[in-house]
UniProtKB/TrEMBL annotation:
GO molecular function terms listed in the Swiss-Prot or TrEMBL record: acyltransferase activity, transferring groups other than amino-acyl groups
Organism: Halochromatium glycolicum
Gene3D superfamilies named in the record: 3.40.630.30
Domain (N-acetyltransferase) ranges: 1-131
Name of one Pfam family that matches: Acetyltransf_1
Name of the featured protein: N-acetyltransferase domain-containing protein
Domain of life the protein comes from: Bacteria
Length: 131
């Protein structure tokens, strides 16, 4: 997913073990849930829902927000509503935890899906600094 989103070059050599450790901790604290679609035994799509409280949002009321990530659909399963359906399940999971704001990073291809769910552009901007 990171490579397809153009961020693979940012990963550390031990990213897989770090992700596993972080996700296990989030699951243990009931701060993450993944929704998946399968075709038989083959995983064809996923959406992750996360409860976060990082800066500066931890100073707001409420001090946490939802985040959708790990959104992926295999090429041949795209365009038939799987990502939309999984995203709705993820949003409902966040609602059950009294989350009022949900954020995500949207690829250009996925932007119409998120807009159909009510997401809008925000004032957030990013700059990749050269080191």
């Amino acid at each position: 997913m990171f490579y397809e989103a153009g961020h693979g070059d940012l990963l550390t050599s031990d990213a897989e073990s770090i992700v596993l450790k972080d996700y296990l901790s989030l699951y243990e604290k009931n701060l993450a849930c993944h929704f998946v679609a399968r075709d038989g035994q083959t995983l064809v799509a996923s959406v992750g829902a996360f409860v976060k409280n990082d800066l500066p949002f931890r100073y707001f009321e409420p001090p946490r927000y939802g985040f959708l990530g790990d959104v992926y659909t295999e090429d041949r399963y795209r365009g038939i509503g799987i990502a939309t359906t999984l995203s709705i399940h993820a949003l409902n999971w966040l609602k059950l935890r009294n989350i009022r704001m949900v954020r995500l990073f949207a690829s250009e291809a996925a932007r119409p899906i998120y807009e159909s769910l009510g997401f809008t552009n925000t004032d957030e901007m990013a700059l990749q600094l050269e080191t």
